[in-house]
Amino acid sequence: MTSPSIRVRIIPDVLREHAALAAFQWAQRDSLAAADPPAGDVVAGIDARLESNLDALRIAGGDAWPFAIEQWGAYPEKGELFVIGFLALENRDADLIEQAVGFARSQPDADRGLIGAFRWLPPAPNAALVRSWLGGADPTKRGLAAAILTEYGVDPGDRLPRLIDDDSAYVRAQACRLAGTVGRRDLAEQIQARFDDVAEPVRFWSGWAGVKLGLGTEAAERLKPAAIEGSLEALRAVVEAGPETTVRAWLGGLFEAEPTRAIAVRGAGMLGDRGVLTWLIRQMGVPTLAPAAGAAFLQLFPEASREEGLFATDLDVLGEAFQQDDGLWGELPVAARIKHWADERGLLPRRTIRADSH
User: Fold this and answer.
1) What's the rounded Cα separation, in Å, for the pair 267 and 275?
2) CA 75 – CA 103 distance, rounded (Å)
């Protein structure tokens, strides 16, 4: 039988491990959910393991808090703040929630963890808290509330116009994103007025919201610099804004320049035209373009994600060109296998198959 003194030593270690694992798993699932394309099946598997660790922390109640704080002290990142936020909200402890908000305020991008904790839990028990933050004096809480409502897809009604013009850039940015998410077309002119905001995040999210609210090419122009710098969210919005002929011409121009060629390849997959498959397969043979070509392929043919062997990490499988590129990582599309897969399903033009047979 285990003695009481041994149990005292074991329990803290177990809680510490649950806190660390939950933080790691949530950060991992957050990154995978934002991957290109999102790894939905993998995320589902992580969610089951994450819930198991959160259950252990939930059962421990307030005893788990010191270990979550300890983890934050060592790694003040979004996953750790997710665990802190989860425990604070689960215990409905006002002091702990205030501490969590303070952590979100102190570290850039850590707010995603606290927002994620709200998203993980049922909205009803925290609705009053979010409403109080939305109308309160603290700009961090107002911004967090707007972000949480964005996750829930909830329109705050008459409060939203005031938030778009808030003194805080953090609040303005989150409010613009919320307006675009819930489709507030009545606020399009107010969003448009934020296109030249002094704060870059506000300019970005007002442009993104502008696309969602029908402001078209003018909004898209505000997002093109971010798209060229690698923002997939901006690239998707530019493609969505259209018109298709204009977008194709823009992507064609990007493809002509080496630094932006991969952006053009990725954007081609967002157009929804499966006719580019032959062209995409050619780009898969170019190491610098293979990641973008693979992501574009999976967006156009999501059913291929269930096929084994179409993507690989083995450089011998990928070919000689990839063995000479030290910057590659992760699974990349195997052009020959994808060509065979497409050929079997009649997805390639006949003239291409005949030409390749000689």
Assistant:
1) 14
2) 12
Q: Which tens digits make up the pLDDT trace of 176-187?
A: 999 999 999 999
Residue 118, exposed/middle/buried by CB under 10 A (0-12, 13-18, 19+)? buried
Tell me the C-alpha distance between 330 and 351, whole Å: 33
Query: What residues does each domain of the chain span?
Result: 276-358
> With left for phi above 0 and alpha for psi between -120 and 50, is residue 309 left, alpha or beta?
left
Judge contact between 254 and 260, C-beta under 8 A. yes
- Residue range 38-70, pLDDT digits in tens: 777 788 889 999 999 999 999 988 889 999 999
Closest among 104, 106, 128, 108 to 116, alpha carbons compared: 104
Model confidence, pTM? 0.87
CA angle 326, 330, 334 (to 5 degrees): 90
Q: Residue 95 is encoded by which pair of tokens?
A: 């002091």
User: Are 134 and 103 contacting, i.e. CB atoms less than 8 angstroms apart?
Assistant: no
What whole-number distance in Å separates Cα of residue 113 and Cα of residue 10?
28
